[in-house]
Every structure is written in structure tokens, then in C-alpha cells.
Amino acid sequence: MSTPATHFNEDARRVAPDLRHRGIIQTAMGKYETVRDQRKVWFQDWQGARDLAAQTKWDAINHLDKHLEQFVRNLEARGTKIHWASTGAQAREIIFGILKAKNAKVVVKSKAMTTEEIHLNDAMEHAGYEVVESDLGEFIVQLRQEAPYHLVFPAMHLTRGDIQETFRDKLNDAPSDEPEELTMVARRVLRQKYLQADVGITGANFAIAETGMISITENEGNARLTAALPKTMITLVGIEKVLPRLEDLALFLPMLAVMGTGQPITAYNTMYGGPRQPGEADGPEEYHVVLLDNQRTTLLADAEQRDSLGCIRCGACLNVCPIFRNVGGHTYGTVYGGPIGSVITPHLRDLQDWKHLSYASSLCGACTETCPVKIDLHHHLLQNRRNASQGKPSWLQKLAFKIFAPVANRPGLWSLTTKLSRLGMKLRALVNGSVLDPARPWTKTRDLPPIAKQSFREWWKEKESSKLQAPSSREIPSTKHQ
User: Fold this and answer.
1) Three-state DSSP state, 238
2) From residue 327, how far is each of 14, 35, 205, 234, 428 by CA, in Å?
3) pLDDT, tens digit, for every residue of 211-240?
4) pTM value?
5) DSSP class of residue 118?
6) Strand pairing partners for 132?
7) Cα–Cα distances in Å, from 139 out to 128, 142, 173?
8) Distance of CA 363 to the CA centre of its chain
9) How many Cβ atoms sit within 10 Å of the Cβ of residue 211?
10) CA torsion sign, 310 to 334 to 145 to 263?
11) Which CATH number goes with the domain that contains 99?
12) What is the pLDDT of residues 410-440, one digit of tens each?
């Protein structure tokens, strides 16, 4: 039976040894780390900024009901239509209702991980709508019929040559592999789609309760065109994206830019507060905001892990994770990969089906150390492991501990076991790597740590024995008669 865990293991075995893939990712991550560290020092107190960001998001999450009410009230006052979606299926149903009411045929989208989360593109295409991703990276992977590879860099796994080949096959237009020329190819296609689009769909980076405004940050201007040209605009936003005050953006916008792409600030930071108002030159005639729950309130009810709702989707934890760097973004089989995805996906989908992600970690703590809002990621992975086991160890675990306990409690037996283990390591060397090797399931993907030639107890006994045999410093040395 095929399961998410089976797919993960198969893809990990295939991708991890791929040196070309690893080289592409390591090169991209190396460049990112350099510019990220250069920009972090621009903060007067980076750790202080992290503390403030974590505190702000904690306040927003713990008073989510109050902030959502204020956010909705301010948006509706300017003519925005608000929709509440408890599940992904309900969100799709709401959006399809809007598309049908507008007799839409062409939909243009800016980057929105929430739409990936509810599989909106596939559903719209199946229903007969033409859907076009306008973010360059998303546009490329859409042409290749792939999922985004990374939260921030959807096409990180591709080289310029790969993109040129994709444009040649799908668009019949790829004059060279120069980035500027490839970008112009995409621009020519997308500009026509903006003009044809009946509806524009966006996500949101932040939702400001105080003013009732959606904040979108980007580098290409595609979200602005998605919002400005179609007559109808839809924003699908997770309820956890709320910030209490407009002034909070003074911290979160540069923090998101630094940790997301290594920029001091992204090129375009835009606020949307409703449909086109009298006297405004552009903007949608009708604006809909769909507030998505999709198990977020279940995670909110978990006092241990609710701080994971504070994630600002910067992707920093993915960039430092040794597992992500080696198995790649597609291996996770879910929209949110890396450490944050391994924490929240079992909550958003199903704990038992996705518990393997919590084991896809070295627990090195690099993710927690780099998270700008100080989410306790590596401890949450341990909590997911515990919750998935439901406190009931397997019969094999029970047997292992029944054998281990009496051995560990008897020094003589423990010493004998250690000596036998050294002998076993010598015998294993004769069958190392073969099907007769009892450690083969472990050593297929990792090294088996060698057993020390001398235990601490043996070393200490030898040391004490040598002390007893050494002559005392108080003894008078013998002398020879002259």
C-alpha cells in the first residue's frame, strides 16, 4: 500500500545520492547565507528584534478572535466581501462560487501557498478554467507540472539550462539561457494573460487588524498587476497571518526580506484595503477575502505547539536544515516542507499519515536557532513523535527495554556485553554490507559508530591499578655503597 511515508523514503533514496541536485542546492544556499548574514547586522539588535517579533506574533495568536473581528470589521467597512472557510474544500467551493458568478474563464494568480495547500490550481483546471501563475518561479514550475520546491524559491532546483529547455518545449521561445532574456520571454506571455484575466487571486503575507488591510510583499510586481487589472480580486489568507498593528510591519517587512531572500527590503510592498474607491485610478471593482482555517484552530488549541502558527513563511528553517538540503523540497510530498512543514503538516492533514516527517530531522536545532519569530521547531518535532505514538510503545520497543534494563543495572553483565559487542564488530567486518550483515538496514544510509576499544570503566580500573603499583613519593630511594 502506497503511503506518504513510502513516497518520502523512495524519493529520499533517489534524490540524496544525486550529486548534481545537491550541487545546485548547495550553491543556492551558499549565496543566500552570505547575503543573509550581511543584512542581519543592519539590525541594531538582531536577537532583540527576534524577541519582539516572537512576542508580537504570540500576542496576535493568543488574541486571534479579537484581532480577526477587528480585521473583518475594518475590511467590510470599505466594501470588501468576507468569507470564512473551515476547510480546504469549503474554500474551493467559495472561490468557485465567485468565479461562476463572474462568468470567469481566465484566472491569473500571484504566489500564494494557501492555494497550494488546498490544491486550488488542480481543482480550477479540472473545472475548465485557465489558470496562470504570474510569479516567475511559480510560472516555471507550473509549465513543468511540478509543485513548488521551496516556500520562497519555487524553482530553486532548476538551472538556467533547465529553464531554457522548459521554455523551448512549452512556449517555443528560448533565445538563450541568460536570465534577463528568459525573464522577458515569461513577461511577454504573462502580460497578455493579465489583460485577458477575469479574476485575480492572491495570497497574503500579513493581515493588519488595526486598519483592515492585506499586506503583500514581492519582488516582481506581479501581485500588483494581479490585483490591479482583473475586475475581481480574491485573497485567500490563513487566519494566523494577522498582526495587531500597522506599525508592526516596520519590523516584519525587513525581517521577512532579510530571512527570506537576504534583501534589506523587498522591491514591492503593497497594502490592499478593499475594492476600488471613488477617485482611484485602478484596482478591482469587487474584492473578496477568504479566511482559511483548515485545522489552524485545532493547532491553536494545542498549548504546546500553537507558537508554530507564528510562522511568517520566510523559509529560513528550510535553508539551514541538513535534511532539506539533501533530500530536496519535493521529497516531503506536501506544500510546507522542511522543519516548519514537518511540524505543522501532521496538524493540518493527519498525524498518523504524516508522522514520518517528524523523524526526518537530525534534531540539530539549527531551525530553531534561525527562526526569526523563535518557534521552538526541533522540540515540536519531538512532541509530534510522542503524540504519534499515543504513549503506547510497540511490542518491539517493549522487548528492547525489557532486555536493556537488567543488563544496564548489572555492571558485570554490562561489561560482558561490551566485550561481546567488540567481538561482534570484528565478526561483522567479515560480512559488512552483505545481506548477512545484521546492521545492514542502518548502514545502508549511515555509518555504524565503532565501539570504543576501552570503556571508561576499564580505563578507570587500569588507571587506579597503575597508581597502586607506582612507588610512593615518600619512599627513600635505595643507595649504593661507595
Assistant:
1) strand
2) 8, 24, 27, 35, 29
3) 999 999 999 999 999 999 999 999 999 999
4) 0.85
5) T
6) 108
7) 19, 5, 15
8) 15
9) 15
10) positive
11) 3.40.50.10420
12) 988 888 888 888 887 777 777 776 666 777 7
The verdict on residue 318 lying in a domain is no
What does the DSSP 8-state code read for residue 105? -
What pLDDT is recorded for position 471? Answer: 64
Q: Are strands 206-208 and 213-218 parallel, antiparallel or unpaired?
A: antiparallel
Q: Which of 270, 294, 318 is the last residue of a domain?
A: 294
Phi, psi of 87 (to 5 degrees): -130, 170
Answer yes or no: do 139 and 270 share one domain: yes
Sign of the Cα pseudo-torsion (192, 193, 199, 201, in order) = negative
Cell of 229: 487589472
Domain end, chosen from 294, 319, 354, is at 294
Instruction: Characterize the bridge pairing of strands 232-238 and 213-218.
Output: unpaired
Q: Which residue has the cell 532546483?
A: 157
Give me the sheet containing 213-218, strands edge to edge: 242-243, 206-208, 213-218, 268-272
Shared-domain flag, residues 290 and 415: no
Burial 186-201 (b: 16+ CB within 10 A, else e): beebbeebbeebbbbb
Closest to 333 in 3D by CA, of 319, 350, 313: 350
- Rounded to an integer, what is the distance from CA 145 to the centroid of its chain? 21
Residue 26: count of CB within 10 angstroms of its CB: 13
Residue pair 40/260 in contact (Cβ under 8 Å)? The answer is no
CA distance 118 to 113: 9
Q: Which residues is 83 bridged to in the sheet? A: 290
Provide the number of structural domains found in the chain: 2
201 is a domain residue: yes
382 domain residue, yes or no: no
Q: Quote the mean pLDDT of the chain.
A: 92
pLDDT of residue 400: 83
Q: Report, as ranges of residue numbers, the positions in the chain whose pLDDT lies below 50.
A: 481-482
In this predicted structure, what is the pLDDT of residue 482?
45
Q: What is the DSSP letter of 4?
A: H
DSSP state of 276: P
- Model pLDDT, residue 144: 97
CA 92 to chain centre: 23
Please tell me the predicted confidence (pLDDT) of residue 435: 64
Is 353 a member of any domain? Answer: no
Domain membership of residue 447 as a residue range: 400-467
Pairing mode, strands 242-243 and 286-292: unpaired
Cα separations in angstroms, 240 against 51, 162, 176, 294: 19, 36, 43, 11
Instruction: At 410, list the grid cell.
Output: 548489572
Query: 104 and 241: one domain?
Result: yes
Give 284-353 as a DSSP string.
-SEEEEEEE-TTHHHHHT-TTTGGGGG-----HHHHH-HHHHHH-SGGG-SSS-HHHHHHHHHHHS-HHH
